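Quick one:
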Amino acid sequence: MKKLAVLVAAVLCAFPAFAGDKGILKLSLWDDIAVALPNNTQTVRGIDVGIGSKTNSIYGLQWDLLVSEAGELRGINTALGVAKVNEGYGINDAWLYARSNRFYGVQAAIVDINDGRFGGLQAGIVNFAHGTVIGAQLGSYNEVEDLHGVQLGIVNNARHISKGLQLGIVNIAKNGWFPVMVLVNGRF
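Output:
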């Protein structure tokens, strides 16, 4: 039994050497103050859990209490406070504020902001897309530079509609059927 325990301990100690440069579990206190198994806190292929974390690449789940930030995401990035993703695919979700640059999937928070190209569903009380949206915005106030899809809200504002439809009480689109419409506006 003692030999088996020594063998298991030796394998566990040697595991980081064989696992490569990817962490499979990261526990974060704040920013990059973290420990990871096997050894990398910046590329996680698995689960990143903490109070507030910042990771270059996450392939899996990043869940934090206050702030969750990922450079590249393939999976789920979520926090109770703020969730940020530079680029990726999956779910960018927070209670208060979700921000992304180039993102495809679902972005949901009280306030959602996308600074580049967005494909999928942006669902929040207030949604801003400072680029192109291919998909849908669902919220009380929706704003987009270039719409290829649907805006559903109380107030919808599109600087340009390539192909799309606005459904709401007030719909603003400079190149829509009319610049301001009640209930429905769009362009096909």
